[in-house]
Records
---
Amino acid sequence: MGRFDLVEKAWAAGCRVALLDAGQDVAGLARQAVADGADLLAVAGGDGTQALVAEVAARHDLPFVVIPAGTRNHFALDLGLDRDDPAAVLEALTHGVELRIDLGYAADRVFVNNASFGTYASVVTDPAYRNAKARTTLRTLPGLLTGEDAPRLRTRADRTYVDGLQALLVSNYPYGRAVDAAHPGRRKRLDSGLLGVVCVRVGNTAQAARVVRGPRSGGLIRLSAGVVVIEADTDALPVGIDGEHVVLPSPVVCRSAPGALRVRVPRRRPGTPRAGGAAADWPRVARLALGRPFPDREKDPDGSGFIAAWAAGFAFGFALRRYRTGDGQEGPDRTAEFARNLGGLLAAISLLVFGAVLLGPALEHLSWRIILYAVLSLTIVRMLPVALSLAGSRLRPPTVAYIGWFGPRGLASVVLALLVVEEHVHGMELVGRVVAVTVGLSVLLHGISAVALAERYGRWHEKTAATTPDLREGTPSPEAPARRRFGPLDKPEM
């Protein structure tokens, strides 16, 4: 620390500085500082030290300054801080900005990065780990995964249950990649209220070696959840809390505390991730869109509400076509009117909830890229396919433009986005924000333009129909052929 003149610069900024001795209780020192009237806590150290003081700061709702002075400083990395110049962080004391970020809890222990279980926790206990983390992980992990003493863990991440695990890593938001505790990748944000979960399940040494070599190994299962429960057949579980070894009673409940920590950071941070959140897991989104099961859901399958609703409507419609109501008016006519009214009511409620719950948080993370996509989505992305689908219909350009502008509705986008949110797909925050802004812009622009454009189109149609007798828009559409409806005593013709 002397190389960066941290002590002198902290004194110059008006801080009270306490130098730690080996083995000193850093959490107790932080609590004593709070009792003495401190209005901000800062600590220079590694991730384990940061977690201990962050817990005290969060408990007393005090601002916290992270000074990276450890080996890896993953927490500082994900905050965008300059790990090569710890003294630069002191700018946050006088000209900084405050962020609200999440904290992770494993039982009653706070973690700012991750909590590792099973083999990962065993790697942390190796005496060589602190000085050579990557080398130690690569040397010991394959043997620990397949040896006679390899642990067997079970976990439930929200509704997903996975068993037969040798290792498990729970992180304060999902990592971009996570194969070993020494190089877990980066987190694009720390304020989502989600935990990332990486499970390792292998059957032999070859599979264990593939897990160490690459993140696409079949032995890796990645999940996201708000609450994760880890258990084993033992009464206690060794856990690595931000690289520090502890033992916790089994089962261990891990949870996220959204916005629990106030962090002061410099206004300029060289490592700040690009706005927009984590990249979406497009293969997982595609599986969701196609209705295919996820590999991690094979033992805990869920049904599709859309398919269930379609099947129920099909059966109901079949029953209505087969039986009359008895008063001369057929059931489908009255049911169709009821369905339209009910659908309109539910759509209005859905848009009300959308505006009150989803749109507001999305506007807080607005960027020009999201606005640009929303504009393109409402014009080219949806109007061009409509125009192509109407090619050959002999409809005039004003009609095609009218249908393209007002035709597709945005409510389905909200429902599909909620499916992505429910499945905790990586990058779902970005997907959710894009959908929310696009639908919100659609409601605004289409609502403003509805009356004016409808009147303008009506005038055009009336004028054009008067001078063009064979106008395609004026041709009555043929009624779709209806199936013969059978009464309760009727029999179909053979």
---
Amino acid sequence: MTIRRIIRAIKGLRYRRCFVMLDGRGNSVTLSKGLYRHIMRKERDDMYIHVFKAGDSRQYCFAFREDFKQLKDTNTIFTQLQYNAEHKKIGFSTTQPSVSGILGDYNLLLDRKVRLTVFPRKTTNNEVFYEIQRPMRSQNETR
């Protein structure tokens, strides 16, 4: 094992309650309770989410932006955090990039829900964003 894999495994234990469920059929992202609690540490008025791909790490990320009105003029696509009363789940749907595109880039199956770990990160401006981790072993591979 390389040092990076060991560090990632330790972080995975630290943030084991922070994960998302990606559903390629419905283009939806469901947050775990632990991740939702981590997000709600900071009081938020508007829950607008920006999903993007981090260029250097090839990982997909999402961030909560409160200044979306200024960024709306730059053709940035935002989505809102939603509560599903029927299933008692919190999540969002994304179209750019789509969940199917994320699953395809991570080499995962599109016809089932996939649980992926999320690591909180900070930018140089001290803003928090959440990085959706690639699985260590693809579900398409045989064991």
---
Amino acid sequence: MDVKKEKANVNSLSIVLWYADNKIWTRELTLVLTGRDWFEFEKQSFYPELIQFLHNLGIQGNIEKQKAG
């Protein structure tokens, strides 16, 4: 199965709300940065804490793939 991802607006942030039974069920956060801006983002003092926070929530798969690649 070939999946294509549409181009996202570079340097953008969006939050999508997903509803179930007319109540917010979950939120989706998308952050899109250029390669250079991502490099700068990773150098920020809060970045390790953010990664640890996500890891504690069980959100780690994509982050680990980024480090490996």
